Amino acid sequence: MVKQRTNPNGFTLNEEGTFDFTVHTSPEQKVTKKGTKLMKWFFSTVKKGEQVIIETVFFDFNVKDLLLVLGAEEDPESGILDWDDEEVVGKQFAATIIHEEDKNGIMREQWIDFEVIDVEKESVMEKAKAATDELKPEDIVWDN
User: Domains in the chain and their CATH numbers?
Assistant: First the structure.
């Protein structure tokens, strides 16, 4: 079971901090009444020891770093990004969420410092940590 949180009263800012995320579903692409293109994303992460699904919106002007960390290829001449919305599902990355006021004094969520999570490296690190956690002081042999 994945705990979910929904605010029926409007947009709520996600918690500030650096988190590991997994793309939960393909993004929903929409166009606002003013013609602004946006993508609604759903990510799973762990907060306070529980796996949760969070949602957020990226616009064309601020989605580049996310798409690149998810494996998009950028055309060096045009800057256009090529990516597959189904292939991003399950991909993992780390990012930092901060809150900043916009020009109208409204607090907005900003996602920065995107990094690829090397799943193979993480798995090796977890196994090493688990092995270390299982050691008892009497099991350690010191060379003199």
Answer: 13-137 (2.40.50.140)
